[in-house]
Amino acid sequence: MKVSRNALLARIRASLARNPVTVLTGPRQSGKTTLARVLLAEDSPNYFDLEDPISLARLDEPRTSLERLEGLVVIDEVQRRPELFPVLRVLADRAGQPAHFLILGSASGELMRQSSETLAGRIERIEIGGFTLAELGANAAETLWHRGGLPRAYLAGSERDSIAWRKQFVQTLLERDFPQWGQRVSATALLRFWTMVAHYHGRIWNAATPASALGVAPATVRRYLDLLSDALMVRQLQPWHANLRKRQVKSPKVYVRDSGLLHQLLGIDTDRARLCHPLLGASWEGFVIEQTLATEPHDEAWFWATHQGAELDLLLRRGDQLLGVECKRADAPRMTPSIRIALEDLGLQRLAVIYPGAKRYPLGESAEAVPLATLAEPGSLFT
Ligand SMILES: Nc1ncnc2c1ncn2[C@@H]1O[C@H](COP(=O)(O)OP(=O)(O)O)[C@@H](O)[C@H]1O
Ligand SMILES: [Mg+2]
């Protein structure tokens, strides 16, 4: 089965039309190459896959080879040859722009830093992840939550195949991809750390506890966390600090971005295990947050919490508006003191309480209970 990703394709096309270089980053196996091949056939001479020795050989003299090409040029797995960025800069600045470049990278922080520094002002970056509710439709919600959105995990023929694939994915990332990206980290240590992050999923992160549990320095823990964040596997959600007299939380929250990988790391491999798991609520919350961030337009995102116990799962800034999101895995969420405080203290325009039910209904003047299914229609969370 082929899932069409028309919104992403439209964004890529629009970016290609207005920039000499477009960078598409996303985790390995998230569907980057598949998207690029919709735009340019694999056998086109303008397609370079830097994991393919033939393509690599064709780029021995990159400037000479690339200079001759016209129209769309795709360079896949660009993190293999970061020295291409200065060449792309020269090519991007040619009069009349004979070629537009789409470069794909299995995200790494270094890649992003190099490309944005070298190509500042000539580049637009589009980040992709796994499938979203908007791409799959509202009926996919349960399966998408259980299996996660990586295409092969989501589309696997059986639950067992999906789990086996996710397990292999984690292993390959740790044992092959990180070393290939030049990261010298023991795969075993990183797996233990990632599993620990899974247990902290949706909680405030304090590096001291995992450091002492793993017997490493807090600086090492920070490095591990940054590695997994750069690989788009972990999200660090930063706290919002409002100008209030209240004491507010200053540490980030951590989430395993893909719910299927979260379940794999936690060893949850049956419906029953998931439904009894203490992190069920946190898992659902993380899933809703990722889906919201993937489909609701926004400029910045945080969470908010005070030491008195008021909190907001997700705070979005869209232009000059502040919008709140709460995730409640409940049949019929009601107005709570915490929601009232968030609305008031943060001056939110709107607040949506996303829940698994079917009906959209008001909770007060600026707050609404909104079905999860609404996220299948991008941009309709706040009305
Ligand atoms: N839209 C899609 N529909 C169905 N399968 C997909 C889709 N996108 C990717 N896949 C499958 O997922 C796997 C990884 O896709 P790929 O494009 O190679 O990812 P990446 O280039 O990000 O590593 C492949 O087996 C591919 O066939
Ligand atoms: Mg690829």
Number of domains: 2
Helix amount, in percent? 40-55%
Strand order of the largest sheet: 9-10-11-12-14-13
| Number of β-strand runs | 14
The largest sheet is: 6 strands, mixed
Rg, nearest Å:
22 Å
Return the structural class. Answer: alpha/beta
What share of the residues does DSSP label as strand, in percent? Answer: 15-25%
Shape: globular
Instruction: Report low-confidence residues grouped into runs of 5 or more.
Output: none
Question: Which compounds are bound in this model?
Answer: adenosine-5'-diphosphate, magnesium ion
Distance between the termini: 34 Å
Q: Mean pLDDT across all residues, rounded?
A: 94
Query: How many helices?
Result: 17
Give a quick set of tags describing it.
383 residues, 2 domains, six-stranded mixed β-sheet, 17 helices, globular, binds adenosine-5'-diphosphate, binds magnesium ion
Task: Describe how the helices and strands are arranged.
Blueprint: H1 6-18, E1 21-26, H2 32-39, E2 47-49, H3 53-58, H4 62-67, E3 71-76, H5 84-92, E4 99-106, H6 109-118, E5 123-127, H7 133-136, H8 141-147, H9 151-155, H10 159-180, H11 187-199, E6 203-204, H12 208-214, H13 218-230, E7 234-237, E8 253-256, H14 259-265, H15 271-276, H16 280-295, E9 300-305, E10 311-318, E11 321-327, H17 337-346, E12 350-355, E13 361-362, E14 367-371
Parallel strand pairs: 1-4, 1-5, 2-3, 3-4, 11-12, 12-14
Antiparallel strand pairs: 6-8, 7-8, 9-10, 10-11, 13-14
